[in-house]
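Translate structure to sequence.
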């Protein structure tokens, strides 16, 4: 993708409760191990979440098109709601403990057989580059998912690496050079937004199959693709696929307006030609499941909208009722608590930031109001408890 878009997090300000006089000990709730007095809003959300316990309502699907809240402070959701499981667990991940040189050789898939370990060479070059940088230009270091390991192999034509036992990369130099040669000059077709190009040299499904065959070497059997671009010029054509991990057909969240230092967002990117993968990047992507919580009952979408109504009524959420939120899906929301990466199931209600910005730039009054008010257009709601995880 040639143009990256970011925005600023919307601050979600919760009201404070002052306890005075002689009264009963208040109920408490935990937020990242911090206990605080349970608010009336939390109790109302809990009551809505409890209404569907033990039902099969979460399996509903269809189209939702209505304003939640009021015209003055509301959220217009106009989205297809896919069927979701009745229950789902929270997942805890750590770095891989089974990656070794033999697996990296399999990922490299050398045709010449002349494979060399170039890890030391890479580290020496990296150290030289850092030593030549001005101090203010040296990248900051912060806690990352995984350990400090690095292993890199090359046969002169291909290169593959494992980093931190949670990241992987692969380059086919000849194919990558062909793709790079047209990347900035070829028309960029947004397949996700506009659909597949009829004149394309090969299909998206073929590209996905080629990518999954490569990922199978790492025992990755499913992914959640969220963005596809197609590039073609002359005899060269390739797809850029952006994707996240997926567990039992529930993908990890991919839409974030901005990212703070220390956050971890598993992300994959690949350039795929008709004949093979030209480039592959898996960042914080390859964790292993070390713990799986007891499965919780997934909120029905009716419960989700009822809970959103509570947050809007309380002014915890600010909305613009004339701006459509076009997506609603069940995903995993990643939170890094070193050394664990915690994946919490959430309902994600949003319009992609790119689309919102384009609407505002075209003069859409509703979307201009969204950015003026810093209204919520990217909402993550705990899919079991209804807690507001993030809104921006």
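Result:
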């Amino acid at each position: 993708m040639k143009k990256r878009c970011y925005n600023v997090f919307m601050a979600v300000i919760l009201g404070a409760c002052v306890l005075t006089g002689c009264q009963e000990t208040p109920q408490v709730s935990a937020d990242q191990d911090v206990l605080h007095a349970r608010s009336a809003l939390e109790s109302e959300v809990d009551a809505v979440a409890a209404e569907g316990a033990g039902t099969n309502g979460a399996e509903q699907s269809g189209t939702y098109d209505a304003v939640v809240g009021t015209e003055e402070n509301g959220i217009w959701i106009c989205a297809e709601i896919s069927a979701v499981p009745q229950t789902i667990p929270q997942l805890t991940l750590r770095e891989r403990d089974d990656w070794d040189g033999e697996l990296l050789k399999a990922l490299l898939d050398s045709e010449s057989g002349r494979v060399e370990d170039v890890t030391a060479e890479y580290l020496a070059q990296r150290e030289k580059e850092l030593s030549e940088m001005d101090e203010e230009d040296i990248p900051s270091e912060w806690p990352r998912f995984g350990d400090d390991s690095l292993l890199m192999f090359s046969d002169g034509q291909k290169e593959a690496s494992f980093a931190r036992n949670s990241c992987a990369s692969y380059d086919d130099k000849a194919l990558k050079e062909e793709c790079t040669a047209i990347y900035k000059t070829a028309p960029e077709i947004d397949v996700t937004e506009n659909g597949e190009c009829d004149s394309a040299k090969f299909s998206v499904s073929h590209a996905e199959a080629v990518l999954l065959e490569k990922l199978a070497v790492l025992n990755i059997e499913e992914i959640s693709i969220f963005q596809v671009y197609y590039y073609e010029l002359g005899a060269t054509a390739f797809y850029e696929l952006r994707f996240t991990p997926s567990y039992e057909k529930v993908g990890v969240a991919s839409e974030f307006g901005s990212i703070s230092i220390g956050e971890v967002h598993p992300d994959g990117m690949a350039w795929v030609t008709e004949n093979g993968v030209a480039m592959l990047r898996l960042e914080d992507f390859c964790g292993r499941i070390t713990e799986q919580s007891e499965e919780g009952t997934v909120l029905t979408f009716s419960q989700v909208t009822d809970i959103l109504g509570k947050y809007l009524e309380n002014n915890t959420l600010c909305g613009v009722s004339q701006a459509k939120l076009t997506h609603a899906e069940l995903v995993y929301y990643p939170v890094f608590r070193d050394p664990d990466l915690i994946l919490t199931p959430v309902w994600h209600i949003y319009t992609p930031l790119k689309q919102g910005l384009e609407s505002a730039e075209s003069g859409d009054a509703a979307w201009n109001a969204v950015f003026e008010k810093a209204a919520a257009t990217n909402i993550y709601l705990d899919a079991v408890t209804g807690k507001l995880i993030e809104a921006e």
